[in-house]
Amino acid sequence: MPIPLPPSWRERLSGATWEREPEGESGGLIYRIVAGTGERLFLKYGEGAIADAVADEAIRLRWLQGRVATVRLVSTAIEADAAWLLTSAAPGKTGDAWIEERPEFLPQVISGFATFLRTLHALPVDDCAFDASASVRLSAARKLVSAGVVDETDFGDDFRGMSAAAVLAKAEALASHASGRVVTHGDFSLGNLLLDSAGEVIGCIDVGRLGIADPYQDVAILWENLGEFGDAAQRMLLAKLDLESLDENRLLFHRTLDELF
């Protein structure tokens, strides 16, 4: 086996086939697994700070079960300085995978994402214990900037050439525009929902940043993603979300802050 496993998992995954997947935002190791029984699974594994991120995702995924369409949590384990998260492999494809395969499917992808987002944002905030507010995310961003771990070469076109400190200062200046409290995904990109061939969402993934925050936390990331496909795609998203116009300052705050993660 390519990674150590908790003792209780070893029999279940004995004889399984393993395929390495690209690393997620948290930097953890991700594997697509087919167990000896034919069961298809995904496993995330991390050590140190990455273990904390894997554990955070496991806790949030457990909370989401039965509330919205999501992958099924199979098992999770935390031991010493390591964490594991085992989930089912949903049969759908991510939004970006569908668009790459069938560009004409873009409207269905946008509709599916918008429908899911409306459901997620309608969840009772009093039931959610995870704080992802602007103040919490700004505090995390300050630590990343101070540690010098923000990749300034990965900034988007609007932030190209800026230092991480300058981007942080811009986000701090805009923070007062973040308002509203809903349950947010936290990284609502085209790669983090799975859809079937009818455009129905059958599962969300990568929920380690889920928590109570301004709804534009999710709107801004998806809006930015859809910019690759032109203004019409972005306008379609706004129509599906019943947003007659964008609050440009709220949008810019979340776009700016997201550059630091």
From TrEMBL:
Keywords: Antibiotic resistance, ATP-binding, Kinase, Nucleotide-binding, Transferase
EC number: 2.7.1.95
InterPro entries, sorted: AGP_Transferase (IPR051678), Aminoglycoside_PTrfase (IPR002575), Kan/Strep_kinase (IPR024165), Kinase-like_dom_sf (IPR011009)
Reaction(s) catalysed (UniProt annotation): kanamycin A + ATP = kanamycin 3'-phosphate + ADP + H(+)
One Gene Ontology term of the molecular function aspect: kanamycin kinase activity
Stretches assigned to the Aminoglycoside phosphotransferase domain: 31-237
Homology family: Belongs to the aminoglycoside phosphotransferase family.
Record-given protein name: Aminoglycoside 3'-phosphotransferase
Taxonomic classification: Bacteria, Pseudomonadati, Pseudomonadota, Alphaproteobacteria, Sphingomonadales
